[in-house]
UniProtKB/TrEMBL annotation:
UniProt-listed GO biological process terms: NAD+ biosynthetic process; quinolinate catabolic process
Alphabetic keyword roster: Glycosyltransferase, Pyridine nucleotide biosynthesis, Transferase
Protein name: Nicotinate-nucleotide pyrophosphorylase [carboxylating]
Catalysed transformations (reactions): nicotinate beta-D-ribonucleotide + CO2 + diphosphate = quinolinate + 5-phospho-alpha-D-ribose 1-diphosphate + 2 H(+)
Organism: Candidatus Nanopelagicus limnae
Role, per record: Involved in the catabolism of quinolinic acid (QA).
Domain Quinolinate phosphoribosyl transferase N-terminal: 35-119
Any GO CC annotation of this UniProt entry: cytoplasm
Length: 290
């Protein structure tokens, strides 16, 4: 367990958070009872060896979360065979576990849910990153994450090669259209935020070139170009002239990612990395006769 804690910390993950997620997930699966199918069909003393194996190629992440699931369920003999963020082909064995058969089966679905979901995010992210390769633009995630899984999902985007946007509302300020409406003006919203939280990074969302020209004068850390066309992003980059970083958001697809990246913006903010990534097909198979 101590080694697992160290591994999670090295990956930028909180061991206590991961262990609580695992505890809650197994608790949800058992619902106060037991795995009646396994208890009825398998001897409590039976021991097996099982492999977590990819059934499709992709970029894998969440391997050490699987390790946490296995350990919580009482399966302490396992080996993680690939690195987090590794690109693997179909048929690759990622983790081998040996132990009580009932306990491996208890861990199976929760482990696969985490592993397939996170690997799906890393795989999709890697495709976006590949699309903008050769430009100076970075793919950046958003807060459009599954409640309770944000740190893991943002970990998965990092493993896919993306850059994290703010992890929480308290980490950095992002003045959006509703803040501007509520405050009255962009100037009022910016001034109030800068005064109250002078040490925090501050980003402002604009939806027109006129707003961009106004905001540039305030010298925010980043300006978010909301739902602007490629042509408008090019114009915005020319106006900013390197004075401020620009981030394009809205209307982005993997097909037009390169065109947006070539405008010269610093970031593409892509919500679909976390809210629409399909799971990577990964299975758990017992070795026959073992």
């Amino acid at each position: 367990m101590n080694q697992l804690r160290d591994n999670l910390k090295k990956l930028g993950l909180s061991p206590n958070h991961i262990f609580q997620l695992v505890k809650d997930s197994i608790g949800e699966d058992l619902a106060g009872g037991e795995d009646i199918t396994s208890v009825a069909t398998i001897s409590s003393s039976q021991v097996s060896t099982a492999d977590f194996t990819t059934r499709a190629s992709g970029v894998v992440s969440g391997l050490h979360v699987v390790a946490a699931v296995l350990e919580y369920c009482g399966v302490t003999h396992y080996e993680v065979l690939v690195d987090e963020g590794a690109k693997v082909a179909a048929g690759k064995v990622l983790i081998t576990a040996q132990g009580n058969t009932q306990k491996i089966l208890l861990a199976e679905r929760t482990a696969l849910n985490f592993l397939s979901h996170l690997s799906g995010i890393s795989t999709l992210t890697s495709k976006w990153v590949a699309e903008v390769e050769g430009t100076k633009c970075q793919i950046r995630d958003t807060r459009k994450t599954t409640p309770g899984l944000r740190t893991l999902e943002k970990f998965a985007t990092r493993m896919g090669g993306a850059t994290n946007h703010r992890l929480s509302l308290s980490e950095a300020a992002l003045i959006k259209d509703n803040h501007i409406v509520a405050a009255g003006t962009i100037s009022a919203a910016f001034t109030a935020t800068k005064k109250m939280f002078p040490g925090k990074s501050l980003e402002v969302e604009v939806d027109s070139i006129d707003q961009l020209k106004e905001v540039i004068e305030f010298k925010p850390d980043v300006i978010l170009l909301d739902n602007m066309s490629v042509q408008l992003c090019q114009e915005a980059v020319a106006i900013a002239a390197g004075k401020v970083r620009l981030e394009a958001s809205g209307g982005l697809t993997i097909e037009n990612a390169k065109a947006y990246a070539n405008t010269g913006v610093t970031y593409l903010a892509v919500g679909s990395l976390t809210h629409s990534a399909p799971a990577l097909d990964i299975g758990l198979d017992f070795r026959k006769g073992k």
